[in-house]
Amino acid sequence: MSITEYNGSALVAMVGKNCFAIASDRRLGVQLQTVATDFKRISQVHDRLFIGLSGLATDAQTLYQRLMFRHKLYQLREERDMKPETFASLVSAILYEKRFGPYFTQPVIAGLSDEDRPFICTTDSIGAKELAKDFVVAGTASESLYGACEAMFKPDMEPEELFETVSQALLSSVDRDCLSGWGGHVFVVTPTEVQEKILKGRMD
User: Fold this and answer.
1) Coiled-coil segments, which residues (predicted)?
2) Which residues contact 120 (CB under 8 A, 6 or more apart)?
3) What distance in Å separates the CA atoms of residue 81 and residue 129, rounded to the nearest whole number?
4) Tens of pLDDT along 47-59?
5) Would you say 183 and 201 are in contact if contact means Cβ atoms under 8 Å apart?
6) Mind giving me the DSSP string for 73-89?
7) Where are the domains of the chain?
8) CA 146 to CA 143: how far, in whole Å?
């Protein structure tokens, strides 16, 4: 088993019309043994920017603390929040810095940039960015997430339809992956509000 699959995870970010959704499963496992069923993989950087970290849970928490430290320094120096594109470059730089002993994690970054354009991106464990205009996925359930998102995605979805689409994609995918699951955690972000919802899924 790969070390990135040790804790299991499923992450997906999807764009809509001037909004985006980011969702993850809630299971924390040690290989096939479930340790927690309310694990948070998605964190809010500021009102318009979120990051989800799949992979080894300990590395994900360490990386998140480093990123928040750097973001707070940026806020103090610049007196403004970091743009999603800038934050993605910061994540990439921090991961590449540690390329000879990498963090075993795959980040998913989602935010609203200027003119309320949704921005989503993912990187690998050494910081190579992959930008997308529709959706990005990460984690042990990524293969089934790709299939579900390809089948369900439509451009310019409104927030309600986007929530429904990303939720159905997540729940149907984690059912096909024994290392992730136990419901879902979904954020739908528009220029005016952040909606957070918990999904109930199969509890086995």
Assistant:
1) none
2) 13, 14, 15, 20, 108, 109, 110, 131, 132, 135, 136
3) 21
4) 899 999 998 999 9
5) yes
6) HHHHHHSSPPPHHHHHH
7) 3-199
8) 5
CATH top class, domain 3-199: alpha beta
Q: Which amino acid is at 172?
A: S
Secondary structure tally for the chain: helices H, strands E: 4, 12
pLDDT tens column, 145-195: 999 999 999 988 999 999 999 999 999 998 888 888 888 999 999 999 999
The runs of H, that is alpha helices, within the chain are 57-78, 84-97, 142-152, 159-174
* Residue whose structure tokens are 């806020």: 75
Residues comprising the chain, all counted: 204
Rounded to 5 degrees, what are φ and ψ at 44? -90, 120
